[in-house]
Task: structure prediction
Amino acid sequence: MGDSDKGKGQTGVGSNSPLADHVYDEILSQIVSGPLEVGAKLPSENDYCRMLGVSRPIVRVALSRLGADGILERKRGSGTYIKRRPSQRLADFVQPGDIEVLLQCLEYRIEIEGLAAGLAAQRRTDAQLITIKSAFDRLSTEAVSDFITPESDLAFHHSITAATGNIFYIDTLRMIQEQTVRLLTVSLDMARDRNKGRISGVLGEHNAIYEAIVTGDPVMATAAMRIHLSRSRRRLTAATKDMKH
Result:
């Protein structure tokens, strides 16, 4: 099949194209399991077209999505390079095809929950603060054994969105609960797997959020939540086993 034939039926490619999903998974699998390190240059778009039997628009969509997920960096006139190489251990916890969903979930949560934490700091009632504290205490108790369950982590985040008093924030977190539980399961399992004391660091991030809400500081609460979720993203894609953040 020639290049012109490969492109037939692939024009107007959307970001949710099944073919783009396939190419995304293939390239990510090669990055995770292959010998290339951070900074390495990837094959050209034309090379991927030949290797995977798809058109350039399909390849471009997949590469753009990998760039948005922080895995690749495209340099004008030079090519595409590996910006962050997920650990091969990631494959022990999640299939390559699921990684994009988890990263997109985190991207969404960073913005939505960052705003929610700021509102919670401004609006929380004494009763809601007691609920948030109870959820944090549960996390603290579990962390003593170097273990935090996804259920406890999620309960803490739910208690914060509830304190916004805005049903849309509350419903939004419920809407993505299934993906969030999957995300937390992978992230927390990898945290324990990489570094025995790393769960204490995760607890410290939650503590910063809690303290900002206690003091009623919306700026710090928003920042602390965004830092926590951004570091969760780094933990998910970090290649270094003993990475501290």
